[in-house]
Design a protein that fits this description.
This protein is an all-alpha fold and 257 residues long. Helices cover 65% and strands 0% of the residues. It starts with 36 loop residues before the first helix and ends with a helix.
Length: 257
Amino acid sequence: MTEATADPGLNRFGRLVERDDKQDFPFYNDQPVAISGSSWVAVVVACAAGFAVLASVGFTDERAELIPRVLFLAMPAAVFVWVARGHWRVLFKSVRASDLGAMVAFWIINLAVSALAALLVSGGDFNHLSANTATDDLADAGAAQIIAFYVGTGLQLLGEEVFTILPFLGLLWFLTQRGASRKKSILIAWLATAIWFGAAHLPTYDWNFAQAILVIGAARLVLTLAFIRTKNLWVSFGAHVLNDWTTFTLALIAATR
């Protein structure tokens, strides 16, 4: 597997943001393979199409719900594997001990940032915020349904990383192709894909724009920062799983009391 190695002359962020490990983002600078503008458009369209399936096809049975969750991940992943011509694995590096530590660190940072954003948006009255109803009635559904829920949400969370990181890389390519600096391109792509991710959560939170864009968008900034720092999608995925599965599990425990 060929990894993207940073040019020593690149204008990189400091060690608090990017590891000093000579790794760079793949594809935006035609390494390890060039992806054309039309191919990036196809990837982003596939991300949107996968989300449309997830948002429009719903089942009350968690086992049946696996279908749209798998498609949400599989549709953009299939297009990306095709356009990356065998180099898609560069997004999924081996997970080292430092990566496990990064997952936990970014999970904790995400909790703090999300709590602060929720406090600011709600003005201290959390009744203004909509609840995530993902685990409603799940406690009484039986073990098979609960297992299917965790498997399905795991696939969906990986899909959410793909849904965010692929457009991030596409924007990075687009901006640098038009002469923007690496730092400026990263910042714009980071913010734009956080808004994209937050907007996708509007139906989940009853079209509460402040909650979806500001609170969920802030959480996404942290998760994407995990990728920016490590260049490893497994790390942002791991932090995402820790965040959501902990929330789901606490809700299930509370519902059984």
